[in-house]
Specification:
The chain is 37% helix and 17% strand. It is of the alpha+beta class and 259 residues long. The protein has a domain of 128 residues: FAS1 domain, CATH 2.30.180.10. It has a seven-stranded mixed beta sheet with strand order 3-2-8-7-6-5-4. A two-stranded antiparallel sheet has the order 1-9. It is elongated, with a radius of gyration of 44 Å.
């Protein structure tokens, strides 16, 4: 007896395979959708509202402004020695405070009067005029009358050159010593007080640091005053025991006389 044979049926190319069920594409779409729903999402941080952000920025600026105000009031400027040069006569710490000289009795000397006369009469100025001894000892200048008598024997040309040199030196020193505002000695606070150092800018741009020592005397860039609050119209004059100059003028002036 022959074994039974199973007929092999070949499927046409256009017919779907037996392993392909009509519902499989829909199953794949549902599975992909479930995977997307189950996949972890990236967390998103909530953004602050614009009004809250503006308030925070304004508050930060207010705190910064208060800190700057506190720093400016609690740390007064100290005169840095490398920003300016001062030629001064050392004064004794036991010296009495300088008197407040009346305008009628105070004498600035010939050179001091000539220096103040270069300023405008109708504008407020404060000028720190060197004393008569400082003019002679530091700047090696004499008054116009002394220069005229000394140069009389050398002729008119020599006298004219001397006067021109004196005028040039006085104009340079005036630029270092004049401040375009009125400043009385009482306008400078006492030592160890708030804002004890007053920073002033001279006409030539030299930084002037005005303060008062332990005895109440007015001190400018380390130079002590001899007579304060001399009022000449709109100008306030303080006589100091030295000369206020910058480093460049001091070097050139010293080299001229040393050479």
């Amino acid at each position: 007896m022959k074994p039974a044979t199973v007929p092999i049926v070949s499927l046409p190319p256009s017919s779907p395979g037996l392993l392909m069920h009509p519902s499989w594409p829909r199953y794949r779409n549902v599975t992909a959708a479930r995977k997307r729903r189950l996949s972890p999402l990236r967390p998103r941080l909530p953004l602050p509202p614009p009004r809250l952000l503006a308030v925070a920025i304004a508050f930060a600026f207010a705190i910064l402004f208060l800190l700057l105000v506190l720093l400016s009031t609690t740390s007064p400027p100290s005169p840095p020695s490398h920003h300016h040069a001062v030629v001064a006569r050392p004064s004794s710490s036991s010296a009495p405070p300088p008197p407040r000289c009346s305008s009628a009795a105070a004498s600035l000397g010939e050179l001091g009067d000539a220096m103040v006369s270069m300023l405008p009469k109708d504008l407020p100025f404060t000028v720190f005029v060197p004393s008569a001894d400082s003019f002679t000892r530091v700047l090696r200048l004499q008054g116009p009358s002394s220069n005229a008598s000394a140069a009389a024997a050398r002729g008119e040309a020599a006298a004219s050159d001397t006067d021109a040199n004196t005028y040039a030196i006085l104009s340079r020193v005036l630029g270092f010593s004049a401040v375009p505002r009125r400043l009385l000695a009482a306008d400078v606070p006492p030592p160890r007080g708030a804002g004890a150092v007053r920073l002033l800018d001279s006409v030539s741009g030299l930084s002037l640091y005005a303060s008062r020592d332990a005895r109440g005397a007015l001190v400018v860039n380390g130079v002590r005053s001899e007579c304060v609050d001399i009022v000449r119209g709109e100008t306030v004059v303080h006589v100091i025991a030295g000369v206020l100059v910058d480093a460049e003028f001091e070097r050139s002036f010293s080299a001229e006389f040393d050479g």
